[in-house]
Amino acid sequence: xxxxxxxxxxxxxxxxxxxxxxxxxxxxxxxxxxxxxxxxxxxxxxxxxxxxxxxxxxxxxxxxxxxxxxxxxxxxxxxxxxxxxxxxxxxxxxxxxxxxxxxxxxxxxxxxxxxxxxxxxxxxxxxxxxxxxxxxxxxxxxxxxxxxxxxxxxxxxxxxxxxxxxxxxxxxxxxxxxxxxxxxxxxxxxxxxxxxxxxxxxxxxxxxxxxxxxxxxxxxxxxxxxxxxxxxxxxxxxxxxxxxxxxxxxxxxxxxxxxxxxxxxxxxxxxxxxxxxxxxxxxxxxxxxxxxxxxxxxxxxxxxxxxxxxxxxxxxxxxxxxxxxxxxxxxxxxxxxxxxxxxxxxxxxxxxxxxxxxxxxxxxxxxxxxxxxx
Length: 374
Ligand SMILES: NC(=O)c1ccc[n+]([C@@H]2O[C@H](COP(=O)([O-])OP(=O)(O)OC[C@H]3O[C@@H](n4cnc5c(N)ncnc54)[C@H](O)[C@@H]3O)[C@@H](O)[C@H]2O)c1
Hints:
Layout: E1 2-5, H1 20-28, E2 32-36, H2 47-52, E3 56-58, H3 60-66, E4 69-71, E5 89-92, H4 100-109, E6 112-115, H5 130-147, E7 169-173, H6 177-185, E8 192-197, H7 200-210, E9 214-218, H8 221-230, E10 233-236, H9 251-255, E11 262-265, E12 286-289, E13 292-295, H10 305-326, H11 328-334, H12 336-339, E14 342-345, E15 348-349, H13 352-358, H14 365-368
Parallel strand pairs: 1-2, 1-4, 2-3, 4-5, 5-6, 7-8, 7-10, 8-9, 10-11, 11-13
Antiparallel strand pairs: 6-14, 12-13, 14-15
Helix pairs in contact: 5-6, 10-11
This protein binds nicotinamide-adenine-dinucleotide (NAD).
């Protein structure tokens, strides 16, 4: 198969969809891999590294027009809409339930669009979202510690304290992939860490894994209010699949927080779980409300492209190999997780939540493609 790797053109985006190691695997499977000039530079992979792996380097026009399968990290943005076309399979993060112009552009173009974030296993895991949640969770703890520093307009507190001086406290709301990863790093920074979760089973699991390094509390409006008032850092990490994040930390709770404390609302890409949160960018990551620093970067893993690019390729490569080795139709017929990733096919919206979000007709994938194993 002809596989293209496009350079990301969104501001502050340095990741690339394939590492040279991934390119080599695909070349060894007999595929023709073409990478756009300088696509990997932001992740420290020069064109020569891809050439050495057996890939070709080409212009943006060649990569988009010659490929059968195009790999990206972020959704196409407006200047790329004209490049969408019938006969191309696009595999990338799409998040189109929140992007009507892109949904319409995909439908109108006849392209097949497979979204990393909706690839979902039968036991409801999101294997292509997980690596980015791992990274964002770990970064959130670091960001909390950093923005507590006085020169960053923070409270001026060292999370670890020192002998004779108390530690700071980190409260994580939501103990899923993001929350667990925050809770791996924050105790290492010396903080007292509490996770508020609403699933008892999940808390039992977390206790087994994390032991006594964190406290686990049932999430309720009262508990959140009390914990947040005491916290130096609050990390928002809840997710209700397919829904906008619930506003668990209200404006009043924020007003009751300590001056110079920090909120890192990782759930901002789903609207945020803090009432005062709005999306920020890596070039302007924080703002202050009622003396509380808000860090709400919507694409946190973009800050560490060397790590994120490798983690992303590790997760996507098996799916890329399945699509390239067998063709999309056979690959999705054999793998329901990958089938759930298909959002748009043959001008039809095949993902129900996306169709609902934009008032478009929903066509079950099974109506467009037979999904029985072939
Ligand atoms: N900003 C970024 O760059 C970035 C990167 C990755 C993920 N995210 C986002 O982070 C959020 C969390 O992702 P995840 O992978 O950890 O999801 P997840 O599904 O693994 O975990 C979410 C957890 O929230 C818990 N939860 C739900 N309602 C709750 C409540 N009322 N109180 C306490 N806990 C509650 C669930 O039980 C679950 O354990 C998502 O919105 C995701 O999109 C953002």
